[in-house]
Amino acid sequence: MSHSNTKKGILRYTWWTRTNHWVVAISFVLLVLSGLALFHPFFWSFTGLFGGPIPTRFIHPWIGVVMAVFFLLLAAQLFKESFIKRHDIQWLKQIRDVLSNRDEKLPPVGKNNAGQKLVYWIMVACVPILLVTGIIIWRPYFAEAMPIWLLRFAVMVHAYTAFLAIITLIIHIYSGIWVKGSIRAMVQGRVSKAWAKHHHNLWYEEVMKERNPPSTDKDDDSSRQQQSP
User: Fold this and answer.
1) If 0-12 CB within 10 Å is exposed, 13-18 middle and 19+ buried, where does residue 148 land?
2) pLDDT per residue of the chain (229 residues) written in tens, 0 to 9
3) DSSP-derived 3-state class of residue 2
4) Handedness of CA 97, 101, 102, 105 (dihedral sign)
5) Are the beta carbons of 12 and 116 closer than 8 angstroms?
6) Taking Cα atoms as reference points, which of 192, 190, 176, 168 lies closest to residue 118?
7) Do the Cβ atoms of 142 and 136 come closer than 8 Å?
8) Which of 2, 49, 134, 197 is deepest in the core (most CB within 10 A)?
9) What is the Cα–Cα distance from 68 to 222, expressed in whole angstroms?
């Protein structure tokens, strides 16, 4: 599928959405690296990326706060277009066709397909849990005021939720690489008409209708009057 001439194509993501997305993405990667370093000795060498174990422990929760704030803004932007619809359910039922690149058999989808929408809702669930549990175990500010049972429970929930979020992130990155043009869209903002029509046909048709609205009967009547002698 051609991706040339994207500058004259269709705007898929605004500059603010792209900036917000990359702030969240970079923050999450930093959280994963610093969090793994604190989670298990096998990843202890990752602390060197942040200046040692003490800076790693200090910076990890603050990065989490930054990511949570920007993710909230991003989630608000993408909320309306992330509802699961009937064609999304059919798309999920045909997941074998998706994985086999049999695009011609798949139902047309909107701006985001069902896979992207699931990533959205999983992260909408995970980020608040990670934020709340992270605040509970945040030393030295809050953890010392918490009962030991709550700290243990929060650590366990934090770890399992982080694992789910990491798996979701890996799938998200793989999907972006797999569908050629997806990463370019998040960098440049625009996609070619051919790409939009092939991967997100319903969204493509909506954009085309907005660009070329159908003429009304009133317009037709006025044009006839102008043409009459």
Assistant:
1) exposed
2) 444 445 578 999 999 999 999 999 999 999 999 999 999 899 999 999 999 999 999 999 999 999 999 999 999 999 999 999 999 999 999 989 888 888 888 899 999 999 999 999 999 999 999 999 999 999 888 999 999 999 999 999 999 999 999 999 999 998 888 888 889 899 999 999 999 998 999 999 999 988 777 655 555 555 555 554 4
3) coil
4) positive
5) no
6) 168
7) yes
8) 134
9) 54
Q: Could you say which DSSP state residue 103 is in?
A: G
Contact 75, 120 (CB under 8 A): yes
Phi, psi of 176 (to 5 degrees): -65, -35
Tokens of 209: 């209708």
Q: pTM value?
A: 0.84
Query: What gap in Å lies between CA 138 and CA 91, rounded to an integer?
Result: 41
Helix 148-178, helix 114-136: angle, nearest 10 = 150
Q: How far apart are CA 180 and CA 174, in angstroms?
A: 11
Active site residues: 172
Whether residue 140 is preceded by a cis peptide bond, meaning omega within 30 degrees of 0, is: yes
User: Amino acid identity, residue 13?
Assistant: Y
Residues in the chain: 229
Q: Which amino acid is at 35?
A: G
